[in-house]
Specification:
Probable membrane transporter protein, membrane, two-stranded antiparallel sheet
């Protein structure tokens, strides 16, 4: 069943888009990520122009993240104070990111650079997460393995310390603010919630417990992606409402399923699955950049013919 998208100017299969939204919703509930790192490349693969995919995918991220957040609020696994600090940084970063996105678009290089951003960031984050998670599992299986104490890095010695009771932390607000700014920039440029950056940063940089990280990440993602969507809609006019609605319906349903699945898996298993998924998407995008397109064409001025 085909549907014509007026802003994207392409026809798509309705059930395919619903399925993509549902898949990303499951990931949102399981891993605490908005799923933009997956939904945006998938939209590229089905023929949606990159500028429209980036701007529209944030709608689906808001919906699936909100659905998953409700389940985490019931379990009281959301650190609202930490989420607010991350959110402040995220709003600043989103504004900066949109300025960068518009500049790249004016140069006519936004399609290539968005893909390059994905390959670089997904490759680095996925590899780091996979190595760390495998090491954690190997250590836990060693005879007589004991639970390691929390490490205190240089970031914990910075000024402006605040107590985050739900996370059990007493750290400076500077690192969470910087993480929020970075995630906001990526949200505007890449059409992602930034969970694939924020979740590892919250675990390994800030030292937050994994069970609290997922819900807190979703809290920040909702507001940053909603703000980013508004900026794209009012400045670039690249948000396709019909595409967004299909993704939202699938995402909301999938998020509830993902939350139930995630509650039954161990933290280390969740991190490995997320790392493998990130690397898989990275590999597909990298191949698309390196391989020769199926159809080659050139544009010539009328006088050159």
């Amino acid at each position: 069943m085909q549907l014509y998208l007026p802003i994207a100017e392409v026809s798509v299969n309705i059930f395919l888009i619903l399925g993509l939204g549902g898949l990303v919703g499951v990931l949102s509930g399981m891993f605490g990520v908005g799923g933009g790192f997956l939904i945006t490349p998938l939209l590229f693969f089905v023929g949606i122009p990159p500028a429209v995919a980036v701007a529209t995918s944030t709608n689906q991220i808001v919906a699936s993240s909100f659905s998953a957040l409700l389940a985490h609020l019931k379990r009281r696994t959301v650190d609202l104070r930490m989420g607010t600090v991350l959110l402040i940084g995220g709003l600043v970063g989103s504004t900066l990111g949109l300025l960068i996105f518009n500049y790249l678009r004016s140069l006519g290089q936004v399609d290539l650079l968005v893909s390059l951003f994905y390959v670089v960031f997904l490759g680095i984050i996925g590899a780091l997460m996979l190595v760390e998670s495998l090491n954690a599992i190997l250590k836990s299986r060693k005879p007589g393995a004991r639970k390691t104490r929390k490490h205190h890095y240089w970031v914990h010695n910075l000024p402006l310390k605040v107590k985050f009771r739900v996370s059990g932390l007493y750290i400076s607000v500077i690192p969470p603010l910087l993480v929020g700014v970075l995630v906001g920039i990526l949200s505007a440029i890449m059409g992602v919630g930034g969970g694939f950056i924020m979740v590892p940063a919250m675990i390994y940089l800030l030292g937050m417990p994994t069970k609290v990280v997922i819900g807190t990440s979703l809290f920040q993602i909702i507001f940053v992606t909603a703000y980013t969507t508004m900026l794209h809609a009012t400045t670039n006019y690249t948000v396709d409402i019909m595409l967004a609605l299909l993704l939202i319906v699938g995402g909301v349903i999938g998020a509830q399923v993902g939350t139930r699945i995630g509650a039954k898996l161990k933290a280390e298993s969740l991190r490995i699955l997320l790392a493998l998924l990130v690397l898989l998407v990275c590999g597909k995008l990298g191949l698309d950049l390196l391989l020769q397109p199926a159809e080659l064409y050139s544009l010539k001025a009328a006088g050159d013919l």
